[in-house]
Each structure stands twice: as C-alpha cells, then as structure tokens.
Amino acid sequence: MSVSLNNIRIVLSHTSHPGNIGSAARAMKTMGLIDMRLVQPKQFPDPVAVAMSAGSTDVLDAAQVTEDLATALQGATLVVGCTARRRDLSHKMVSARELAPLLMAQAQTNPVALVFGTEMSGLTNAELEQCQLLVHIPANPEYSSLNLASAVQILCYELRCAIIDMPAAAPVELARHEDLELFYQELEQSLIAIGFLNLAAPRRLMTRFRRLYSRAQLEKEELNILMGMVKLIRNPAQINQAAKLD
C-alpha cells in the first residue's frame, strides 16, 4: 500500500445516515485509503454502516470519532474542503482532477485531510474556514446533486490515479493544522491590540488572512517566525530585550 495514501484522512462531518458512512468506507478501501475520521456522526457504530461497507469493516473499526472538526484535523498539514458551491471570501477552489496531484505530492511526506460536510447542506462556513483549499466535482449544472459516498469515491479514485509516475518528494516539515489555528488566534488578538482590526466585523478580515497564509503553505519554521512576530506586537517591551540578546 502506498505510504502517501496512508497519509490521507477522509473526514466526514455530522453525517446523518450511517449507510453513507459504510458506503464511504467501501469507497475508501477500494482505492487503498484507510484513515477515516467522523465528527459527531448521528448514528455510529451502526449495523447499517456495517452492511453498506460490503466487507470494509476494518476501515469502520479503525475510524476515529471526534467531538469537533479541529480534533479530527490535528496533525494535518493541508486541509481540503469538498463543496459544491463557491462561497464569498472563500479559499481557492480547484476541481477534483486538479487537486489530486497537489494533494498526493504533499501526502508523500505529510498527513493531509479531505473534509466532507452533511448530506443536506455540506460544510458550514465555520468548517470551511479551517480548510486551506476547496475542491469541487464538476457535474451537470442542471442536476449537480451527488451522494456523499459517491463524492468520496470520485475523489479517492482521482487520488489513486495521481500516484502513477509521481516523482519522490524531498521531505519538508509543514505547519500542522492545530498550530495554524493557534497562530490565527494570536494574530487576531495582536491586530485587535494595535487597533488594526475592526471589532465590528473582525472575521471578514481574518478570513482574508487565512486565504493569504493558506496559499503560502507555511513550513513549521516559517510559522514559528510569524508566531514570534505577532506575540511581540502585543508586547513591544520584549523587542528591546530580544535585541540585547542578539
């Protein structure tokens, strides 16, 4: 089994029907993916999920259930949200075929995540904010409704196809999801402290900052530099002390 496929986690958020969880597990195993994360599923474990998995119960048995999306994404260095529609101020959106080589290249050396929302409404805006990239599956514009498990199957298929003839990547330690979220919290507090952030509508500007840093694909050391910078913004007295140490 490809190591890069092992580094891909499929995250299903607030799935309402256990049959879709089982079908998604089947779709994953067919393409060689094994890491499933479930954020507050309505019913799981469930015999319907087992029946619909068609023998991929090992994926279901190993599935991690979490109370929130942030926990499911811990350790991921690239988070991609699957959505059928464009959102205001959202991150860059690519097609499933465009995404596959990008995601697989990073998955060679770092854990990544594909996030799917509820069957009825998809991902919430708050969930999309935790993503760095968005992916859509081109479909008939007159009837674009796609079953959750079918969407998982299509993306897993594209990822497996992208493995062929992929050159080996040099290992680079990228910033993890939880560290990026901590950085965004520190950045927001620092911008509030210096009066740069409009308290009447802080989230709009912070969404733009998320887009900016998502495009940069920050390495761990780069994030450490930025974290130190934003902390000094809130405590300028440390600047003189840091200069003396230099």
Automatic annotation (TrEMBL):
Catalytic reaction equation(s) = cytidine(32) in tRNA + S-adenosyl-L-methionine = 2'-O-methylcytidine(32) in tRNA + S-adenosyl-L-homocysteine + H(+); uridine(32) in tRNA + S-adenosyl-L-methionine = 2'-O-methyluridine(32) in tRNA + S-adenosyl-L-homocysteine + H(+)
Q: What is its main location?
A: cytoplasm
Provide the leader sequence positions. none
* Keyword Phosphoprotein belongs to the record: no
Look up the EC number in the record and give it.
2.1.1.200
Domain tRNA/rRNA methyltransferase SpoU type: start-end pairs: 8-157
Alphabetized, the UniProt keywords read: Cytoplasm, Methyltransferase, S-adenosyl-L-methionine, Transferase, tRNA processing
Q: Which GO terms describe its biological process?
A: tRNA nucleoside ribose methylation
Cellular location(s): Cytoplasm
Keyword ATP-binding attributed? no
Q: What class of enzyme is it?
A: transferase
Which is one Pfam family of this protein? SpoU_methylase
Gene Ontology CC entries for this record: cytosol
Q: Name one GO molecular function term.
A: RNA binding
NCBIfam families given in the database record: rRNA_methyl_1
- Sum up the protein's function in the record's words: Catalyzes the formation of 2'O-methylated cytidine (Cm32) or 2'O-methylated uridine (Um32) at position 32 in tRNA.
Q: Which family does it belong to?
A: Belongs to the class IV-like SAM-binding methyltransferase superfamily. RNA methyltransferase TrmH family.
Q: How does it assemble?
A: Homodimer.
Q: What protein am I looking at?
A: tRNA (cytidine/uridine-2'-O-)-methyltransferase TrmJ
Q: Which organism is it from?
A: Sulfuriferula nivalis
